[in-house]
Amino acid sequence: MNADTFKGKWNQFKGELKQQWGKFTDDDLMQIEGNYDKFKGKVQERYGDRKDELETWIDK
Q1: Cα dist from 56 to 1, 9, 59, whole Å
Q2: Distance between terminal CA atoms of the chain?
Q3: Closest listed residue to residue 21, CA positions, set 11, 55, 35
Q4: Which whole number is the average pLDDT over 23-46?
C-alpha cells in the first residue's frame, strides 16, 4: 500500500469513526494519526465502558 492509498483509507476511517463514535474529535484523531497504541489509549479514555465493542468494530 503506498502513502496516498494509506492516507485515503485513513481519511475514510476517520469519517466513519466520527460518524459512529461521536466522542472523538478532530484533535483526537490528529494526535493519534498513525499510532495504534495512542488510538487504543484514546478509545479507553473516550469509551472505557464500550472499549471491547469499539475494538471489535475497528477490526471489521
Answers
A1: 23, 18, 5
A2: 19
A3: 55
A4: 88
pTM: 0.66
Dihedral sign computed on CA atoms, order 5, 6, 7, 8? positive
Q: Per CATH, the architecture of 3-59 is what?
A: Orthogonal Bundle (1.10)
d(CA 10, CA 8) in angstroms, rounded, equals 5
Cα(41)–Cα(39) distance, integer angstroms: 5
Residue 39: partners with Cβ closer than 8 Å, 6 or more residues away: 32
Determine the pLDDT at residue 21.
Answer: 92
